[in-house]
Amino acid sequence: MMRRIAVLDAPTNLGLRPPTVSSVPGCGKAPGALRDHGLLARLRARDAGCLTPPRYDPGDWRPGDGVCHAPEISTYSVALADRIGAIIDRGEFPLVLGGDCSVLLGSALAMHRLGEAVGGRIGLVFVDGHSDFRHPGNASYVGAAAGEDLALVTGRGQPDLAAIEGRRPYFRDIDVVVLGIRAQDEYRLDLQAAGITTRPVPALRAEGAARTAQWAHEQLVDCAGYWVHIDVDVLDPAVMPAVDAPDPGGIAFAELEILLAGLVDTPHCLGVELTVFDPDYDPDGAYAAEIVNTVVAGLAPVVAPDAVPPRLLPAGPAAPAPRAGDGQAPRPATTVPVPAVATNPIGPAAVVDGGDEGADDTAAWLPEPGEQDSGPAVGPGLLRRVAVPGMDGGPVEAPATGEPA
């Protein structure tokens, strides 16, 4: 039975600098532009609505004041986490349409809540043209959350963003895989020092997009599941310049399609977010159409008739040493608690009613608290899911330059 996609708009631009003194970033228009090209109909997705962000107003912010719009981003992230959690509770696959990269904070918060609920860790596949790893430890000042999102979700930065609900970090460094950054990324050495696994564009192309997706799976084998972040500036500006900080040396649409298909073709993948497309640089809609074509093709494994519903899987063996040429040290073996299972065995063919008409009822749910006393308490708005071993699929073969936000 196919998995159902639920599309949620998160049209925030709070994490970006204003393009000019009197204007606001245009990426908040991205969800509408993508919907105009038939994205939901082509995915046969449920419309999960729009989470309207607070007003964009930098006011009298100055360097040294911390992250601009921090209170608004924090509030928005909590609301976004709630909405993502509700989608996952329905047994659906969330596709979040940003907005700028600060939407990752809401997704990360939702994943941390979920990891806590199941007694495991959730990983992150970070597909982005830039590392977004600026933080007080490596920069003279911070300011735009969209250029600092990876640092914030790994616990670096001011607590009102990096430790919402007292959760810090949302993702551990060893549970993050970064794909598609440029070879000379400003913070590549900081990523290496932190133990964050990376595959820049040259290595991604040398190995191929499909094999890179499989490699990313292997790096996160100790996690109960993972979230996928895609910033469209991973694409080369020769084919997709409609972003705030186009940077030469990116990948092609076909490579992104294959990479996305490989990353989502497994019940281990819990959802995807798409960020930073700016329709202000796409007056005729050509780039929006190309993005929609790529996303629809890339998410085909999710809606295939034989797709396996999303599951939180038990931890596997320690991740293997990276392939030669990736420049990464082997990851240490870690022990991750296996998600609790129900008293009555539930096999791969089991059908459990999720209690929501029209939702995907093939997801195997655990009882609510009070129905049995085993397993950890469930976090806000998130149920525990039973682990079904042996169901992990493989990959599918198949404007003006500016500084990062």
Biggest sheet, in brief? 8 strands, parallel
List segments where confidence is low: pLDDT < 50 over at least 5 consecutive residues.
316-403
Principal-axis shape equals: globular
Question: What distance separates the N and C termini?
Answer: 41 Å
What is the mean pLDDT? Answer: 82
What string gives the helices and strands in order? EHHEHEHEHHEHEHHEHEHH
Strand content: 5-15%
Q: Measured on Cα atoms, how large is the radius of gyration?
A: 20 Å
The portion of residues assigned to helices is: 25-40%
Tally of contiguous helical segments: 12
Helix and strand composition category: alpha/beta
Instruction: Please state how the strands of the largest beta sheet are arranged side by side.
Output: 2-1-3-8-7-4-5-6
Number of strands: 8
Description:
The chain is of the alpha/beta class and 405 residues long. The chain has 12 helices and 8 strands. The chain has an 8-stranded parallel sheet with strand order 2-1-3-8-7-4-5-6, with helices on both faces. Helix 7 (188-194) links the parallel strand 5 and strand 6 (197-199). Helix 3 crosses helix 4, helix 9 runs parallel beside helix 10 and helix 10 packs parallel to helix 11 (286-298).
